[in-house]
Amino acid sequence: MAGLITDLINVIEGQTALFKQVIALSSGKREFIIKNDIEGLRGIVAKENEIVPKALKGDKERERIMADIATVLNKKKDELTLSLLAELTEGQPENPTYKIAVEEFILALDEMKEANDANKILIESALEYLEFNMNIVHSSMDAGPVGYSDTLDEGHEPGSFLDTRS
Q1: Residues 72, 74, 75, CA angle at the centre, nearest 5°?
Q2: Contacts by residues 67-70 (CB-CB < 8 Å, ≥ 24 positions apart)
Q3: How far apart are CA 21 and CA 51, in angstroms?
Q4: Residue 70: its pLDDT value, please?
Q5: DSSP letters along 74-135, please?
Q6: Which of these, 160, 118, 101, lies nearest to 33 by C-alpha position?
Q7: Which residue among 15, 21, 72, 119 sits deepest, i.e. has the most Cβ atoms within 10 Å of its Cβ?
Q8: What CA–CA distances, in Å, run from 74 to 4, 77, 78, 90?
């Protein structure tokens, strides 16, 4: 079982490294969202899309190893969690390394979730702002001429929201 735990540690450490890459990209994504830089966002998303297949592969590998460990421990694979495995391997030489790997994995997951939540809020705010501006422009065009009188002055076009002429 020591070999399985070592394999699991390696997979968890690999996934943690991938999550840290995504976290770093999320910081860059935040800046592009704030600057409204679509091309920059596209670049970040492309880099994230390169990481996703690796993370999915790591998930499958971690699940496979956990299923093998569950079999060795005569547990149901659905019952065995990373935390329970830490308890079950208490006293084993791999346990301290395993616990550190799991703690870093969980911290990286939490940090990635926080970064994604923050970016989600920024994107939602940007979309609300855009919708607000579109509604202003649309309503000004529907309202007819912009100004103080009911009549059109010669040379002014109706519904011109941004007309700076007097």
Answers
A1: 110
A2: 68/4, 69/1, 69/4, 69/5, 69/8
A3: 8
A4: 92
A5: T--TTT--HHHHHHHTTTSTTHHHHHHHHHHHHHHHHHHHHHHHHHHHHHHHHHHHHHHHHH
A6: 118
A7: 15
A8: 15, 9, 12, 17
Please give the single-letter amino acid code of residue 143: A
Q: Give residue 130's Cα distance to chain centre.
A: 22
pTM above 0.90, yes or no: no
Report the Cα–Cα distance between both ends of the chain, in Å, rounded: 83
Which residue type does 58 have? G
Q: What Rg value do the Cα atoms of the chain yield, rounded?
A: 27
- Give pLDDT, residue 110: 94
Q: Cα–Cα distance between 135 and 77 in angstroms, integer?
A: 53
Report the C-alpha gap between 70 and 61 in whole angstroms: 14
